[in-house]
Design a protein that fits this description.
The complex is a heterodimer of chains A (248) and B (290). Chain A is of the alpha/beta class. Helices cover 38% and strands 24% of the residues of chain A. Chain A contains 9 helices and 10 strands. The longest helix of chain B has 40 residues. The chains are: A alpha/beta (248), B mainly alpha (290).
Chain lengths: 248, 290
């Protein structure tokens, strides 16, 4: 069986600054991959490249074995198969919760409003937000907004989810509720690529951890191996700083 | 963003920053209003006295503020003004739609849309570079003179077209500023959900953009509401033209004053509304920030 997602020799530079350098990654079906590394190491760009929000300079990205970076590929069709959640929630402020969730199903997938809303409400109920259906985003807490953003991405029924530091903008006491949602998705067997600074969470939830440094995947492996016996000096240094900060 | 009346109490007043019924604050407010009122009255009385007692006043009154002439000219000016209002309403609706279309075209990304984008930019640059009055003359006299079959020859039609084209170029830039003021992450998350560029603009960016530029659009309303009078140069008998005709006949300019009063009666309320709306919007945004 072909892997769900594969990156082969991906390069990306913004102007003169190389952000990704020959990145290789294989993500199997139902696998959870966590990307760790300091800010600016390329985690976020990598996710945006996978979602085709950022075009790559060299290399290929394969989704279910098909090259999605080939010329002539319709990015909208690719994006329909994966969901992405950002650090800054990015809910649409002029729409209430249910409209945020049903916009893409209705307009992109042509689902009838009643059906889309029913499904949206089911998702809201599952994630403990059934009382927020007609609320506007600015009336929700950061944690609630981020959970709605996850549901919005799930509403198009993707089988690959990308998370871009989704808890970094949250107050500490709200982080857990969002991480629990992601744990729930893992139990459902969702394939996920997660960029995160939450090392404890990465250790618990990941099947594979990749340490990024200056645009390269310097080291990858099972969480136990990466967190207990990192091979590279840079990885050791990075993890030591996290431990010193009391975050692991 | 819709119904947040409960947040309004955070915007101003004593609600958040003082006890709910701060008697001191209210008393001071009343006194301030009283002082403002009295000083305004004094100022007006002094100013009026200065004008009315000047040597030139009798002549000014005869030429500009003559009641008999006013009564005689007013019906014609009012009739002309009604045409102004109709022209304004029609033009404004077309402008709001047409300029939004131009702004959306200009906001499309990607090399495939380059020709469309370039066309929009050329249109905006050219039209903004030509004086409105010149455009009115060009179209209003020029096009009918061509005697093209099937092309309207009405001066009113072409005068309005010139106004619509001219104002659309400006209004498109207002919309575009609004679209660009919406954070890039909104476009990105819309695209990440599989929406096309057009859908992202229509459902996500433009609704937020319009909210951001309503004060600027209202400003454009006031401006257009006066500039419709420019079609008088094509001989269209709107308010200023009627006043002009009367002045040419009688050498009395009271008709101009009548027309001015009518324009003011519309534009001042719109200006006040714009201020009120902008202020309310600002408060709303602040209250969300807290």
């Amino acid at each position: 069986m072909k892997p769900k997602l594969e990156l082969r020799g991906v390069w990306k530079a913004f102007d003169d600054k190389e952000v990704l350098r020959e990145v290789d990654l294989v993500v199997d079906h139902h696998e959870v991959v966590c990307l760790i590394g300091s800010s600016g190491s390329g985690k976020s760009t990598m996710l945006k490249c996978i979602n085709l929000l950022v075009s790559i300079d060299d290399g290929t990205i394969l989704l279910d074995g098909a090259d999605i970076t080939a010329p002539g590929v319709n990015p909208n069709q690719v994006r329909e198969e994966m969901g992405i959640v950002f650090q800054a929630f990015n809910l649409f402020p002029h729409m209430n919760v249910i409209d945020n969730i049903t916009l893409s199903p209705r307009k992109v997938h042509g689902v009838a409003r009643a059906e889309a809303e029913e499904k949206g409400k089911d998702l809201l109920e599952r994630f403990g937000l059934s009382d927020k259906v007609v609320e506007y985003p600015d009336r929700l807490s950061g944690g609630e907004q981020q959970r709605v953003a996850v549901i919005r991405a799930l509403a198009t029924e993707p089988d690959l989810m990308l998370f871009d530091e989704v808890t970094s903008a949250l107050d500490p006491e709200l982080v857990a509720e969002v991480l629990d949602v992601i744990r729930g998705l893992k139990d459902d067997g969702m394939t996920m690529v997660i960029a995160t600074h939450e090392m404890g969470f990465a250790r618990d939830v990941a099947d594979q951890v990749c340490f990024l440094d200056q645009g390269r995947i310097l080291e990858h492996g099972q969480p136990r191996q990466i967190f207990s016996t990192p091979q590279e000096a840079r990885t050791q240094q990075f993890l030591q700083r996290i431990i010193d900060a009391g975050r692991l | 963003m819709s119904d947040r009346s409960s947040l309004d109490e955070f915007g101003g007043g004593p609600g958040l920053f003082g006890p709910p019924h701060a008697p001191r604050g209210r008393e001071e407010g009343t006194r301030a209003a009283l002082i403002a009122f009295v000083s305004t009255i004094i100022f007006l009385v002094v100013a009026l006295w200065a004008i009315l007692s000047s040597d030139a006043w009798p002549a000014v009154q005869r030429q500009f503020f003559n009641w008999d002439h006013f009564v005689e000219v007013f019906p014609d000016v009012l009739g002309g003004f009604w045409l102004d209002v109709k022209m304004f309403l029609f033009a404004e609706i077309v402008i709001l739609a047409f300029s939004l279309l131009i702004a959306m075209i200009r906001s499309l990304r990607g090399p495939a849309f380059f020709p469309l984008r370039a066309l929009a930019i050329i249109f905006i640059d050219l039209i903004r570079g030509i004086p409105v009055i010149l455009l009115i003359l060009l179209l209003g006299f020029g096009v009918p003179a061509l005697q093209l079959p099937g092309v309207p020859k009405s001066a009113l039609f072409w005068g309005l077209t010139a106004l619509i084209i001219s104002y659309s170029a400006y209004t498109a830039e207002v919309y575009r500023a609004g679209i660009e003021s919406v954070h890039e992450s909104q476009r990105m998350s819309a695209r990440s959900l599989g929406l096309t560029q057009g859908q992202a603009l229509r459902y996500v960016l433009v609704p937020q953009a319009i909210r951001n530029v309503i004060p600027a659009l209202l400003n454009g309303f006031v401006s257009l509401q006066k500039d419709v009078a420019l079609v008088l140069i094509l001989g269209i008998r709107e308010a200023v033209r009627e006043a002009d005709i009367y002045a040419a006949k009688t050498f009395n300019y009271t008709g101009y004053i009548a027309a001015a009063l009518l324009f003011l009666a519309v534009s001042v309320p719109v200006a006040r509304f714009t201020d009120w709306y902008t202020e309310r919007d600002r408060r709303k945004k602040q209250s969300v920030g807290t």
